[in-house]
Structure formats: C-alpha cells, structure tokens
C-alpha cells in the first residue's frame, strides 16, 4: 500500500510506502533506509516528489528535525535533490556507483554492528590462535583504559579505548589484509559513536563485559570460545534485540 501526494501544475506524483512507526535508535537512519527501499523497489521513482514534511512526520511518527536529517543525508548522497520553492525530488537510485567504503560510511550503527559481529567471530578466533604475549599486554592496557573512561563517564575516551582494544585483536591475527578490512569497518563504527555520544549510553557495561570474556578466550588461546562469545552477543544498538 502506498500513498500519493499530488503536486500542482502537472508535476509528477510522489509515492511513499506505508511503514511501521520507527522504534529503533537513530531514527533518521531508519527513515533513510525506508526511503531508499521505496526507491529501489520502484515505489518512488526518479522524478517523483516527496510528500511535504508534515506528511512524512505523520507517516514515520517522528519530529521535523528527524525528517530533515534523513532528507539532508539523501540529498548529500545524491539520491534526492531540493528544488527551491517547489519541493524535494528523487534524483537517483540508491547505491548507483557507490563503493563499498561509501556504503559502510553511510550505514547505521545498528547495521554496522550486525556486519561487524559476523566479521568479529572470525577475527577473534584467528587472534586466539595467533596472538603473542605482547598482544595480550596491549589488550589488557586498552581494556583498563576503557574501564577508567567508563568510571569517569567520558564517552569520547571510552570510544577511543574501545577502538584500540578491538583493533589490537585484529592485529593479533597477524593477517595484514584482515587488519586493513577490519580497520575500515571499525573506523566507521568509531566515527558514528563520536558523532552520536548519546548512543553509548548504557553500552559501556556491555562492552566491558565483552572485553573481559574476549581477554579470557585469547589468554587461553581458545579460538572456539572466542567465536562463541561474538555469536552470542546481541546487537546493543537495537531496542528489540
């Protein structure tokens, strides 16, 4: 089921899919995803005009600032264009000509975690087999830095220490290509957490617990345990997981 917003003067109709009201963190990301899906599926076509802001606000159950944030992101990526005095139009299909790096950097924090979790299982298992004593020392230092940042309620320091901890696990694999791939993915997570400090609320306890479990598995060189830890880790950025 779609709704159509008629535009005056013979301009193209605009369609928008009926969706459930957004309930996850990063509401703008969810709206971006819904609009991209509508365009990819042909429910919204190149040249169609988006409904006005009040209609989008009602349809998604969010405020004006959230709608504007989502639209700005899609305009920036070239999917939408703003015609001053007229409206916002679909200008391209999402993903056309995008590199993998572009897609990673535009993904939501919840999407990144899902991909990261699948990747981390292999990284942790390989690190447990190949780690050195120096790797363990670096991991303990990074884990301690995370604990100190959490105690001082310092989100920025926590994000940096958490990044160092997980990058050290990747380094412990002794696989240069894997480290480069992981750095791209984990760097995108770090950027989003820096830009959204509120997302880290309540996450630090989860992260510290994860660190301790991973440290134990790597210390024991137990690759299967390291993989199971990640397999059993829920996505902390989703409300309903």
TrEMBL record:
The chain positions of domain HTH gntR-type read 25-93
Recorded hits in Gene3D superfamilies, A to Z, give: GntR ligand-binding domain-like, Winged helix-like DNA-binding domain superfamily/Winged helix DNA-binding domain
Q: Which Pfam families does its entry note? A: FCD, GntR
Signal peptide span: none
Provide the alphabetized UniProt keywords.
DNA-binding, Transcription, Transcription regulation
Q: Which PROSITE patterns match?
A: HTH_GNTR
Q: Which molecular function term from Gene Ontology is one that the record holds?
A: DNA-binding transcription factor activity
Q: Which PANTHER family match?
A: REGULATORY PROTEIN GNTR HTH, TRANSCRIPTIONAL REGULATOR, GNTR FAMILY
The protein depicted here goes by the name Transcriptional regulator
């Amino acid at each position: 089921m779609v709704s159509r917003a008629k535009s005056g003067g013979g301009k193209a109709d605009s369609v928008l899919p009926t969706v459930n009201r957004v309930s996850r963190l990063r509401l703008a990301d969810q709206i971006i995803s819904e609009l991209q899906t509508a365009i990819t599926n042909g429910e919204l076509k190149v040249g169609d005009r988006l409904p006005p802001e009040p209609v989008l606000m009602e349809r998604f159950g969010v405020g004006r600032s959230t709608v504007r944030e989502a639209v700005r992101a899609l305009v920036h990526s070239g999917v939408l264009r703003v015609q001053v005095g007229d409206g916002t139009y679909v200008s391209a299909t999402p993903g056309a000509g995008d590199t993998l790096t572009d897609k990673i950097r535009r993904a939501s924090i919840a999407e990144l975690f899902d991909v990261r979790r699948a990747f981390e299982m292999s990284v942790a298992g390989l690190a447990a087999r190949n780690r050195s004593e120096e790797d363990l020392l670096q991991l303990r230092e990074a884990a301690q830095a995370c604990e100190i940042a959490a105690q001082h309620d310092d989100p920025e320091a926590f994000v940096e220490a958490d990044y160092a901890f997980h990058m050290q696990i990747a380094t412990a694999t002794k696989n240069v290509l894997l480290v480069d791939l992981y750095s791209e993915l984990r760097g995108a997570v770090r950027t989003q957490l820096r830009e959204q400090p509120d997302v880290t609320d309540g996450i630090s306890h989860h992260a510290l617990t994860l660190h301790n479990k991973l440290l134990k598995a790597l210390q024991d060189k137990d690759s299967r345990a390291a993989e199971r830890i990640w397999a059993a880790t829920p996505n902390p950025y989703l409300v309903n997981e």
